[in-house]
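Researcher: Please predict.
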Amino acid sequence: MARLQLQFPEDQYYYRTQLNVRVTEINAANHVGNDSMVSMISEARARFMFEFGIRETANEGLGIIVTDLATTYKAEAHARDQLLFEVGVMDFNKYGGDIIFRITRPADNTLIAMAKSGFVFFDYQISKVVAMPPEFMAKFPQANWLPN
């Protein structure tokens, strides 16, 4: 049994994208390796941010930094599988929040993995964590807030 249990509210997913598993993402056990899944999650995050007009890197100094990543694996994925990444946000705080992921294989409706990645806003010009911009908050009105 996994030590982590990741479950997220359905209304917190805002974006969907598909990625195909490449042969180079398969490990010696003949399924997607952890390192490859982390890369695929990062790609899904980048697509999500781009879709919502959010720069991950310095935009007039402001960007985001990923602070952590938790992933639970539910099933194997293999070469040439098409995976659906559903992406959302939740657990906002003054400086950032969590980006959430549900990864499934639509061909057989199998849940492959769940993941949660923390992030904060960072001003690269002054090298300091800064408050979440109001324009970011406005893009996700359903996102919950954690108490200070």
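Model: The chain has two helices and six strands.
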